[in-house]
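Before relying on records like the one below, remember that each one covers exactly one chain. Contacts with other chains, cofactors or solvent are not represented anywhere in the record.
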Amino acid sequence: MSGEFRGLDFVLQRGNGAAPEVFTTIAGLRTKTLTRNAEMIDATSHGSNQFRELLAGAGVKSFSGSFDFVKKDSAVLTGIETDFDAQTLNNYRFVDGNGDSITSAFKVTQYAETGGHNTEHSGNVTLESSGAITKEADIDPLA
């Protein structure tokens, strides 16, 4: 699977913790923002001639995702709500339309739901990684 893909082809999947782990797609995602972070280590010293020097190969790497959703099926979001309420880590996988995926243990750090009188029931969830990130190719984003 290669080439261009649509934003709607990008999915969030939640693992069930079994061996082998089975991932379920969280449906109804509207907007997705993924951020890769790398903390820098400042190694500037008196001998740096007033220029900042960064230490290569050092620092903490992390991954975060923020997702807006439309709540079409309460059962789909129950796992995320459970992870948030218990403040536990669970495996989540992000898969793009090319089948490239990133999997890691994540903590749900923010969960919000909104709804107006004449609007859909919607919300937002934010996930922060914990531990190593695994990258894979050729995952079916709709599986």
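The chain has a mean pLDDT of 85.
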